[in-house]
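Here is one chain, start to finish.
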Amino acid sequence: AQVKLGTQVRVDTQVRVDATTAATPTPTPTPSGTPFVLAQTLGTLRNDFSGCVGFVFAATANKTVSELGRWKVSGNSGTHLLALVQDTGGGSGTVLQTCSVNLSGGSTSAYNYCSITPQAIVNGTQYYVLSEELSSGDQWYNFDTTITSTTSGIGSIQDAAVSSSGGCTSSFSVSGAGANKSYVPTNFNVQ
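Its structure:
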């Protein structure tokens, strides 16, 4: 049945699953928008840290972020909190958006995305794009991973970044590996 809500349409459906049929994981939605990271050279695999890892970038244009992404390594099956955090200096930041990506489905050796409420990023501001990881959990790539960003003037990758706090809320630092380096790697799409 369709219920009209202003200009939105909601479709109510019922799905019956036969007890003998196994449930299929929900696939990761096809990403929308333009990805920031276009290519990556993957580094060393690890899973020996609990906290948030990814990269920090400096925005070079005003844009709107619509999705956050995490690279799926073969064998990954966990759910990961992804965060877009504005750098406020001194190892502090403001979490702007979070979402969770479930890696039990989706594509291996590719970015898997989750949607966020569209979030503006501002020219001249630094942001972290992070994935929360658990020691002995899913594998991810170390800061020897090199990522190449889009040439459309969205931002420049400053360094691989870490937050040792749960929920990616504080204690931010960089790896010192330099420009175009990332843990995991992580990604985002802009509209």
